Amino acid sequence: MTPILSKSDAADLVVAARIRRGLSWSTIAEEIGAPLVWTTAALLGQHPMTAEQAKRVCTLLGLDEPVAESLQRQPSRGTDPAVMADPTIYRFTEALAVYGPALKELIHEEFGDGIMSAINFRVDIARRTDPDGDRVVVTFDGKFLDYRW
């Protein structure tokens, strides 16, 4: 019996097939009827897909059953520390280092004692045109979870 393809190996195959077929992440997300950022994260190994989603993606990308099988597995979430050094990813870390304490204060002021869920969570990305250069708009939409005793 052969081992199940790792999520990172499956992600590499997905990325290669997407590029070679000239497909955008949004095209793939539309094909499976799922949100863009969630779909991209799932195909990069951070979420499990349903059997139907995995089958549709693999059909679209011309990938075989071992990839579909891997896409359905429960992930070990997180990122390799080397990936965190990527300038785009590091900017998010930097933004949260600078604005995280202020966001925490504002969440507590508005909602009370609690946190924003990263499990019951949505994230979206958009482009906003600006005379000084286009802006990246990232929206975090997490359920408020109050501390209860």
TrEMBL record:
The active site is at R91, E94, S117. CDD domains: Cyanase_C. Keywords: Lyase. The keyword Lyase applies. InterPro entries: Cyanase (IPR008076), Cyanate_lyase_C (IPR003712), Cyanate_lyase_C_sf (IPR036581), CYNS_N (IPR048564), Lambda_DNA-bd_dom_sf (IPR010982). It holds the Pfam family CYNS_N. One of its GO terms (molecular function) is DNA binding. Its EC number is 4.2.1.104. It catalyses: cyanate + hydrogencarbonate + 3 H(+) = NH4(+) + 2 CO2. Catalyzes the reaction of cyanate with bicarbonate to produce ammonia and carbon dioxide. Belongs to the cyanase family. This is Cyanate hydratase.
